[in-house]
Specification:
single chain; 422 residues; alpha+beta; six-stranded mixed sheet; 28 strands; 19% helix; 31% strand; binds adenosine monophosphate; binds magnesium ion
Length: 422
């Protein structure tokens, strides 16, 4: 199917429209709108589990086999029928042979006998309990130990971990390394997964020079594109590098056309405000689908949302700090929905502040932050061009829409970058 021009049904052209009369969109409202208007667009394919790590499940996964498949020993020791041995000392003859992992004891253990077993070995027929080898003395083909035994001790029951037929992973889950262990243990051979969301990234601005190349004195390096492309790779999506475009409407239009052909989603940065050189918002407004969301958020503000040739576009701010915060706070949960992961909000931790700040009411604020000695410290400057602060930080502090007076020790909400999938 790859290479086909066939696409899932397009999103409607007005899917980003704001209720009339809205001036500033609170973050929660923006989230609610995105959540209600977007739906999964990523296609589905079946993969062998060896290729499924990082993919998003398109259907719940059932265990094809119980784990463990048969009762087995949890320790090295001696297997017996536990109910035979009450309080007191016991001397019990050993049968010859043993049960080792993958090399089971073939016979059946007679009632008042014991057999040598090793960790992971299938429990021999006639035995249900294992005596730890440290708890016996061995000699003359016999073992001696103290009772009473607890029936079933040191043995694992068949299916005690997973039962065949159980739902072990839900649809929408992105397969983790731990899930790989579970899928293997439950004998799953292939899974139905979403195709990775293809996300095109375009930087805009006459001032931008290519990272790693040369720059004129009045140029700055394009920092947003390397940041966004690597972020998308972390999310498990397929980043598509569409390069830089100057502040020129025709060039931008061609880049958007190309991006819409190749990608499921387009991320642009820069040019999203309403200024003379803000060609992203100007061009997108021609489609009639543009909603310039003035987010009540710092850093950030203008976020241009539109549908370009059936493809959703997130027009991120140009300032790198605002671009990254808007990508994490708005584009990420929206892309997760499109990718089949469902709406995803980070889980914050309430932790004491190591800083003080007086915040006015009216917009939500995200500060570059990190955790040291159990306290949250923030980057010294709030300037949204400070790329060094993004890199210094290991997460974000979220201050609520309302006014807030933070002093040292005030609990604040901290999100480690990992909560945003980084
Ligand atoms: P704009 O949103 O285009 O007005 O850009 C806002 C600020 O962000 C300006 O100072 C731009 O030079 C800067 N900027 C825009 N795009 C990038 C980029 N890709 N990398 C680094 N800085 C950028
Ligand atoms: Mg610009």
């Amino acid at each position: 199917m790859s290479g086909s021009a066939l696409k899932p049904p397009p999103l409607t052209n007005d899917c980003f429209a704001l209720p009339s009369g809205v001036a500033w969109t609170p973050v929660a409202e923006a989230h609610a709108l995105l959540q209600s208007r977007l739906s999964v667009i990523a296609g589905v394919e079946t993969l062998p589990i060896g290729q499924a790590h990082g993919r998003v499940l398109a259907a719940p996964v059932k265990a094809m086999r119980s784990n463990p498949p048969q009762p087995n020993s949890a320790v090295d020791g001696y297997a017996v029928l536990g109910a035979e041995y009450g309080a007191g000392n016991h001397v019990v003859p050993l049968v010859s042979g043993r049960s080792a992992a993958g090399q089971p004891y073939k016979g059946s253990v007679p009632k008042t006998h014991a057999v040598r077993v090793l960790t992971g070995a299938t429990m021999p027929n006639g035995a249900d309990t294992v005596i730890l080898q440290e708890d016996v003395t061995l000699g003359g083909g016999e073992i001696s130990f103290r009772g009473p035994l607890k029936v079933g001790s040191n043995a694992r029951k068949a299916g005690e971990d997973v039962s065949a037929g159980d739902i072990i992973l839900d649809s929408g889950r992105q397969i983790t390394p731990a899930d790989m262990a579970l899928l293997a243990a439950a004998a799953v051979q292939e899974v139905s997964v979403r195709k990775p969301l293809r996300v095109a990234v375009i930087s805009t601005g006459d001032e931008l020079a290519e990272a790693g190349g040369d720059a004129e004195p009045d140029q700055i390096y394009d920092a947003n594109r390397p940041m966004l492309l690597s972020m998308l790779a972390r999310f498990g999506y397929q980043p598509i590098d569409m390069g830089r475009v100057p502040d020129n409407r025709d060039t931008l239009q061609k880049a958007l056309d190309q991006a819409a052909l190749q990608a499921d989603v387009i991320l642009t940065s820069g040019g999203a405000s309403a200024g003379d050189e803000d060609h992203v918002s100007a061009l997108l407004s021609e489609t009639g689908s543009l909603a310039l969301w003035r987010m009540a958020v710092k850093p950030g503000r203008p976020l241009a949302l539109a549908i370009w040739k059936d493809t959703p576009v997130f027009g991120l701010p140009g300032n790198p700090v605002a671009a990254m915060v808007c990508a994490l706070v708005f584009a990420r949960p929206a892309m997760a929905l499109l990718a089949g992961q469902g709406w995803q909000m980070p889980e914050g931790l309430m932790l004491p502040a190591a800083f003080s700040k007086r915040k006015k009411a009216g917009r939500r604020e995200y500060l570059r932050a990190r955790l040291r000695d159990g306290q949250v410290e923030v980057f010294a400057s709030e300037g949204s061009g400070r790329v060094s602060g993004l890199s210094w930080a290991e997460g974000l502090v979220e201050l609520p829409d309302e006014a807030m007076e933070v002093s040292e020790g005030t609990p604040v909400r901290y999100y480690p970058y990992s909560e945003f999938g980084l």
